[in-house]
Design brief:
The chain is an alpha+beta fold. The protein contains 4 helices and 4 strands. Helices cover about 45% and strands about 20% of the residues.
Length: about 140
């Protein structure tokens, strides 16, 4: 599929995630429609929040350094608030990409962020994201 088509898919998913998974600040799940593809997302004000843009830059850098991951497409929702990255993977565990998106947010907020530590806030937000994804997984 072309890069433009992947970006179109990401835009559709960003709109759906912004509508149905808004309570999840960020997260990752397997795509229901595309084998070996992660749907990584943020509901964190991409168009207006520089931290969100940095988060995506850090995530993309993580993906580009790993030969088992391939950045397929990216888009924001129509309102610019939510975003989705589609990442192809070769036998990569979901927890690895989930950890990467949370670490990316941590680094975007604080360059000294300890990627190995999970704060109480992050623990609660991950739990919210897991619950939201479990409820709405069929849309992805």
């Amino acid at each position: 599929m072309s890069k433009a088509k992947w970006n179109d898919v990401a835009r559709e998913l960003a709109n759906e995630i912004g509508e149905h998974l808004f309570e999840a600040h960020r997260g990752a799940t397997h795509s229901a429609d595309y084998i070996e593809t992660f749907v990584v997302f943020g509901n964190d004000g991409y168009s207006e929040d520089e931290r969100s843009k940095k988060e995506v830059e850090f995530l993309r850098s993580f993906v580009e350094k790993d030969d088992a991951l391939h950045w397929l497409g990216f888009s924001t929702a129509e309102d610019g608030y939510s975003w989705v990255a589609l990442i192809e993977h070769e036998a990569v565990d979901l927890i690895n990409i989930e950890n990467a998106v949370w670490a990316a947010w941590g680094r975007a907020c604080d360059p000294e962020h300890d990627d190995t530590a999970v704060s109480g806030y992050e623990f609660v937000q991950r739990s919210i994201a897991h619950s939201a994804i479990a409820r709405y997984c069929p849309i992805l």
